[in-house]
Automatic annotation (TrEMBL), chain A:
It comes from the Bacteria. The keyword Transcription regulation does not apply. CDD domains: TM_PBP2. This is Diguanylate cyclase. It comes from Teichococcus deserti. Belongs to the binding-protein-dependent transport system permease family. GO terms for biological process: transmembrane transport. It is found in: Cell membrane. Residues 96-306 form the ABC transmembrane type-1 domain. The keyword Transmembrane helix applies.
Length: 317, 572
């Protein structure tokens, strides 16, 4: 097992290097740059812009800039944002809490409801419930998040005045109750799509399992249906979900770009969008590396957990 | 403008009005007292249509109550006021820091850290404009308790031009020589050449503390840049990145106010969501980008809210690149201008919010020329102009001259639906003139990069200003030595060259005679209106909103953000 882990870690490092190289090149070669926002205003001279570009080191050849960035990165220096001059790691740290809060809650809600809908849909295949769940999932997957977010705000905040129209908390209050109140709207929007996805995965996985020979054997042994479903079917149907959960890990930490924007949620998604818009190269690269590490770690953890959960797979090696 | 377009929004114009500089500067304190005697709200109401006078008297000095949440669609991220930043950053700078003097809505300059605004009349500026002497206010302290002195002003002016420091702009400051501290509260310097706009530049130059920045190993990365210390009415309290910045009242502020305990600058990136938060009362005021045009009529009917339509110093223009053969022909530019349905664009697409204009100067500016020829949307006249200039229609109905087709791209930032609709209107009308124009839009960070500054565009639909800071001097945009692609330094991306305009701008920079400056700029506007290096469409009007019981809000076209007097805001 440890040999496998070391090998996978080695592969991950090579992948990470390639990702950073490609990401750096695409980001810097894309037209425009961090000074565009100042040029647009018209009150800085070209001389000012050229001077600042030079001071930021943007006038040097791209390979030189990349090697310098990589060298600093290896020493633990992720650079500073062009926008607020703060260290990149500190910036990521200040946004990740909001994202985790939103994504964990919505994912838990979606997993619980999605698993329940999926299991029930598989057991009662082609029933009215199953048909409605299938149609509901298709509709939920088709609704644009941006539009749905605005509808939630319009109906529940502006119309009914039940929910705040965004923000993570009321400035000056920040109590648990206040935070939960603010969490409902964005959570509803994110959970809608995720529930649809989880329910489809769960239904499909459950259908695979309940047609297996060992389920038929359990039934022929006269075991109660409830026990068959809970002890044999659901447990096995959940196994593929481990992989999906592992692959979902990066999403938990990288945030939901659209929902965070509509609901004024100061998370990683919005940070990424703002940093891309302003061509804040150090922050975009920092988020890219961070997300890549999460993807690689998520897939490794999923593989390891799978082998632990399903002894038939044996230890990877 | 979602951030892309709003990058361009510039509010201020130096509008020093029609009074002589000497007169304005000789009695600034009196003017301020007169205004304050009227009550800030009442005194400024005339400058701001739709602004209601205060229903309740301003609290007594030292009385503070409550907090205000100001909604912004862009996030302030640059807190050192000398470093590169965009307009929204000024909401922080103007409340945490002070300038030597600042502009009022009527254009007069009011002393702040200085005790009087220097002029040739009061001897603060020598007759040749080369020697400046400024007396500073005693008894002012930085937020950390250290005394403010002339050394801070000297340090600030020197830091701006210091090699290696990422200062926002050195324009004007680079002319300052031999700064001399004459006493704890008096400073003097020499100018390399007379430069009238510098007075206005200093009204936007925030003074930073020497004792904190000089002690840092590198002022570019000093801790100060993340937690600024100023002399302003509010002091830095805390920042939640990506969400809000909280300022607390500076109890030792030397001027009037503040009357609020806290000011929260809340970042709400989506403008529709920002408006929703204004409706629900989560934000008390929307300033800057304002309320989207399609919601203004509805917002005006909201109970407990007050909507002010405030003029901005920015213009929406069609910017032609005169480096393109077809667009270098003045007749083509004049025909294209006649083919713009300004009324259609403003009324149909922007709900009548903006003001049509003919000049590069805002209509509230003291140099505004109201007698320029009025634009008339006339396709027949436009076609006749092109016929006369030799742009003949071919078999396909499209025009060409000497083998050069009358064809070009029109570009703007992607994702701005209203601008894209404006483009469609332009294309539709120009197609009737045999002009083959097509849309080529790009994301903000792309379009305002090399595409813009190296004049790679053909025509641009852009919202921008044509001044130097808050002075009417537009030489950074119109002078022939300001064309970057021809080795110049400036923002003349249109590549316009005109000898008479050059002469006018040089002379107007060097004289402190306001009447002479005005005459020169009136003539310059005539030249620009005739030559059309920019095709002006409208002057921006922004609908800003506040809760009705928030008093003291007063739009100021000469300030870069309407939080300029937040120290005087209070709750009724």
């Amino acid at each position: 097992m440890s040999g496998y882990v070391v090998r996978r870690l080695g592969q991950s490092l090579v992948l990470l290097l390639m990702v950073s190289m490609i990401g750096f090149a695409i980001l810097h070669l894309a037209p425009g740059g961090p000074l565009s926002q100042f040029a647009a205003g018209g009150d800085m001279t070209q001389e000012d812009l050229d001077r600042i570009a030079k001071e930021l080191g943007l006038d040097r050849p791209l390979p030189v800039q990349y090697v310098e960035w990589l060298w600093r990165m290896l020493q633990g220096d992720w650079g500073r944002s062009y926008r607020d001059q703060q260290p990149v790691l500190q910036i990521i740290g200040s946004h990740i809490g909001a994202t985790l809060e939103l994504m964990l809650t919505s994912t838990l809600v979606a997993m619980m409801i999605g698993a329940w809908v999926g299991i029930l849909g598989a057991i009662r295949r082609y029933s009215i419930f199953d048909s409605l769940a299938t149609i509901g999932a298709m509709v939920a997957l088709s609704i644009p998040t941006f539009w749905f977010g605005l509808v939630v705000i319009y109906v529940f905040s502006v119309g009914l005045e039940w929910l705040p129209a965004g923000n993570r908390y009321t400035i000056g209050d920040e109590s648990l109750l206040d935070r939960l109140h603010h969490l409902i709207g964005p959570c509803m929007v994110l959970a809608l799509v995720s529930t649809a996805v989880w329910s489809r995965y769960m239904r499909s996985s459950m259908l695979d399992v309940i047609n297996q020979d060992y389920i038929r054997t359990a039934r022929s042994k006269g075991l109660p249906e409830r026990r068959i479903l809970l002890n044999h079917a659901v447990r096995n149907a959940l196994l593929p979900m481990i992989t999906i959960t592992g692959l979902h890990l990066p999403a938990l930490l990288s945030g939901a770009l659209v929902t965070e924007t509509v609901f004024t949620w100061p998370g990683m998604g919005r940070l990424f969008l703002d940093s891309i818009s302003y061509r804040d190269y150090p922050v975009v690269m920092g988020i890219l590396v961070f997300t890549s590490v999460m993807v690689l770690a998520g897939s490794l953890i999923a593989d390891l957990l799978y082998s632990v959960a399903d002894p038939r797979m044996g230890a990877p090696g | 403008m979602g951030h892309g377009v709003r990058w361009l929004e510039r509010k201020g114009d130096p509008s020093m009005n029609d009074h002589s500089t000497d007169r304005i500067l000789a009695a600034p304190a009196l003017r301020r007292r007169a205004l304050l005697a009227l009550g800030a709200g009442a005194g400024l109401a005339a400058a701001a249509p739709g602004f209601a006078p205060s229903a309740k008297a301003q609290p007594a000095q030292g009385m503070r109550k409550g907090q205000v949440v100001v909604g912004l669609s862009q996030e302030p991220t640059a807190f050192n006021p000398l470093m590169p930043g965009i307009e929204v950053d000024e909401t922080i700078w103007m409340n945490v820091f002070d300038t030597l003097w600042y502009p009022m809505p009527d254009g007069s300059l009011v002393p702040s850290l200085a005790t009087e605004v220097p002029s040739t009349g009061n001897g603060g500026i020598s007759a040749d404009g080369l020697r400046w002497r400024v007396k500073l206010r005693p008894g002012v302290t930085w937020h950390d308790g250290t005394a403010f002195t002339a050394e801070d002003v000297k340090y600030t002016l020197e830091l701006i031009v210091a090699p290696g420091f990422k200062s926002r702009t050195r324009l004007g400051h680079a002319l300052v020589r031999d700064i001399e501290v004459l006493g704890p509260h008096e400073i003097a310097w020499r100018m390399e050449s007379a430069f009238a706009p510098y007075l206005a530049f200093l009204s936007n130059t925030y003074i930073v503390p020497k004792h904190l920045l000089a002690a840092a190993s590198d002022p570019n990365t000093a801790p100060f840049n993340g937690a600024p210390v100023g002399t302003g009415a509010f002091r830095w309290d805390r920042r939640v990145p990506g969400d809000h910045i909280q300022l607390a009242a500076n109890e030792k502020y030397f001027g009037k106010g503040p009357f609020l305990e806290r000011a929260i600058l809340k970042y709400v990136p989506d403008m529709t969501a920002l408006y929703a938060q204004f409706r629900t009362g989560q934000v008390d005021a929307i300033i800057g980008t304002g309320i989207p045009a399609n919601f203004v009529a509805e917002a005006e009917k909201l109970p407990g809210k007050r909507i002010s339509k405030v003029s901005s110093g920015s213009l929406e223009v069609l910017m032609p690149n005169l480096g393109q053969p077809a667009l270098s022909d003045k007749a083509v530019r004049q025909a294209l201008y006649a083919g713009i349905n300004k009324k259609g664009i403003i009324d149909v697409i922007f709900y009548g919010l903006h003001k049509p204009t003919e000049s590069f100067a805002p209509q509230e500016s003291w140099v505004y020329n109201a007698d320029l020829p009025a634009h008339r949307f006339d396709l027949a006249a436009a076609n006749a102009m092109l016929d006369k200039a030799g742009w003949a229609r071919g078999a396909n109905g499209l025009r060409a001259k000497d083998g050069v087709p009358l064809a070009f791209d029109i570009s703007t930032t992607t994702g701005n639906a209203l601008r894209e609709q404006s483009q469609q209107l332009l294309l539709q009308d120009w197609s009737k003139m045999g002009v083959a124009a097509k849309v080529n839009n790009m994301p903000a960070a792309v379009i305002w990069g090399e595409f813009y500054v190296r004049s790679k565009f053909q025509t641009l639909l852009v919202g921008t200003g044509f001044r130097s800071g808050i002075d009417p001097d537009p030489s950074n945009r119109f002078a022939s030595n300001a064309i970057p692609v021809k080795g110049g330094s400036g923002g003349n991306y249109m590549q316009w060259e005109n000898a008479e305009a050059d002469r006018i701008m040089v002379e107007a920079q060097a004289t402190f005679d306001t009447a002479r400056r005005k005459a020169l700029y009136l003539r310059l506007q005539e030249i620009v209106r005739d030559e059309l290096p920019i095709l002006p469409i409208y002057q921006y009007v922004t609908a800003e909103g506040t809760k009705s019981n928030l008093m003291g809000y007063a739009p100021n076209i000469n300030a870069r953000q309407n939080t300029w007097n937040m120290r005087e805001w209070y709750w009724a």
